[in-house]
Write a structure and sequence with these properties.
alpha+beta; 4-stranded antiparallel beta sheet; binds D-alanine; binds zinc ion
């Protein structure tokens, strides 16, 4: 499979395209308070029941997520829910931007003070704990790419289509509105050297193996596992961590399933 070796280049390029690369002197970090109010689609149905059953050994899957059908497709009704399902079928509401983005206190492989550093507060706290836990085990992790706005994702996706062709681009990159990075609940992670960051060669590194084993303890899942490409719609991405909370992460990891399967959906 053709690698997306140019991911980092693309991310920098997209930063430039999106006008969010750091100028010579760092700009202040965006504060949640000053962010625009998201234009959310009003839920047409009650929020889904997402709790993982605790007593049965063969629990029923969580309810299918609530969505509203628009001309663009299925729009999630609960974009701020921690367990929100965003994939090739389910998209975020127009203009969605989480209201509680913060910068986790972890190392990053880049120095720019831009939005790639951000995650939603609960996920950011959990990620700080994960990175500290890894450090205790002698594994030094760093952030590669966290929050991406609709516009940044659009630039990135279009860049991949142009440089890698549409078929390859779609295996690794979500269309704008369909990326977990826009939820503020995802972070791409690499070793602190940045070697193999967001690249196929990250697989089977000590850092990837540590994440595969321990991410669950902090409420994260490897969102696009090997062997589940037909279900998730994406190639194996051992670097893409998605925060879902400890309870759901434990259920998903124990069963060896994806978030789609957790909701009883199979791609
Ligand atoms: N790489 C994942 C699929 C994204 O672009 O959101
Ligand atoms: Zn990712």
């Amino acid at each position: 499979m053709k690698k997306l070796r140019t991911t980092l280049l693309a991310l920098s390029l997209v930063s430039v395209i999106a006008g969010c690369s750091a100028p010579q002197s760092p700009q202040p970090q965006p504060q949640a308070k000053t962010e625009p109010t998201p234009k959310l689609t009003q839920p047409a149905q009650p929020a889904p029941t997402t709790q993982a059953p605790t007593t049965s050994t063969t629990p029923a899957p969580a309810s299918k997520p609530a969505t509203t059908t628009t001309t663009k497709g299925q729009v999630v009704a609960n974009p701020m829910e921690i367990a929100v399902l965003v994939n090739k079928s389910f998209m975020l509401p127009d203009g969605f931007r989480p209201s509680d983005l913060v910068e986790p206190n972890i190392p990053f492989i880049f120095t720019e003070k831009d939005e790639r550093r951000l995650m939603r507060k609960e996920a950011a706290t959990a990620l700080e704990q994960l990175v500290a836990g890894a450090k205790k085990d002698g594994i030094f992790l760093a952030g590669v790419s966290g929050f991406r706005s609709y516009e940044t994702q659009a630039s990135l996706f279009n860049y991949y289509v142009k440089t890698q062709g549409e078929e390859t681009a779609r295996k690794y990159s979500a269309e704008p509105g369909h990326s977990e990075h826009q939820t503020g609940l995802a972070m791409d992670i690499s070793g602190s050297t940045g070697k193999c960051a967001a690249d196929d060669c990250f697989a089977d590194t000590p850092e990837a193996n540590w994440l595969a084993k321990h991410a669950v303890e902090y409420g994260f899942i490897i969102r696009y596992p090997k062997g589940k490409e037909q279900i998730t719609g994406y190639a194996y991405e051992p670097w893409h961590l998605r925060y879902v909370g400890k309870k759901i992460a434990q259920e998903i990891t124990a069963k060896g399933i994806t978030l789609e399967e957790y909701y009883g959906m199979h791609g």
